[in-house]
Amino acid sequence: ALAARCREGEKRIAAALRELEAHGYLQRIRHRLTDKKVITRTIFCNQPTALPHPHHPAAQPHPRTAAPAHAAVRGPAPVAVATPVRVDVPVAVPAPVPVSASVPAAAPPAQEATPAPPAPGTTTAPPVPGTSPTPPASPPPPPPLFVPRVPPPTAPKPPRRPLPRPGELTPELDRAATAFLSDLHRHAPQFTLSEDDVRRLVPGVAAWLERAARPDGMRRALTDDPPHPLKHPAKLLTYRLTELLPPPPPGADDLAALARPRVTVTPFQTCDDCDRAFRSPAPGHCRECRETRAAHAQAAA
Hints:
The protein is mainly alpha-helical and 301 residues long. It contains nine helices and four strands. The protein has helices at residues 2-5, 10-23, 171-182, 184-187, 195-210, 215-223, 233-243, 252-259, 287-300; strands at residues 26-32, 38-44, 268-270, 277-279. The strands form two sheets. The protein has a two-stranded antiparallel ribbon with strand order 1-2. A two-stranded antiparallel ribbon has the order 3-4. β3 (268-270) and β4 form a beta hairpin. The longest helix is centred in the last third of the chain and has 16 residues, at 195-210.
């Protein structure tokens, strides 16, 4: 039905539903009706913690006749609570043996009746002679149905970064930042600021100007592609002044390191006569071949 109404295919829609179910925004519960039919109920929720725990009708206890004490006992049904629940498991009780008044209350082990063998799947333990049966340990709490990966809306949020400030707010920087913010609505009408907003944003603009930012580049970085409709221009400017702060300009030492001459490496050349490798800025002959050629020229002269 969703594939008929949406442009996506069935596989992509099914993958998206599975992802929503894994994050806790969607829950699918199966219910068994009285006519032996099974239906699936889908629950959507914006807050994953508000989804109810799954309830399976098949796990509900049905009213039945009381079973004998030695009947097989199944494990406890899953409980959707966080606190541990104590479950008393019935233990096979030996048949009573008639004793006289002179015999002590605890009969010897040879006179005790043999208990019925436990059925498979039971958790009963053989009773120890002379002691009362110890109740089984409480089962551990059930694991959580899902672990929300998205924090709830009430989760504490990290503190926001403060508005950048210049090293020293000089009168020149204050006047330039005030003029920039006051003239911003002429280039971007959505960014009409009040006097209080201008005074609050002046240190952030002064920090940009101190880092050699040009007004045109600042205006493009702060006002391009705003959300529609723009309800709080001062908040958007505060965020962009903080997150898009340019790095400080390089100092004289950094520029001197860039202007430092590099070491020139002389390349290898191949001699035209002996094919030896030698370093030279231009191709030609190696030292030995040049000396040999000079000796031959002197002998010929």
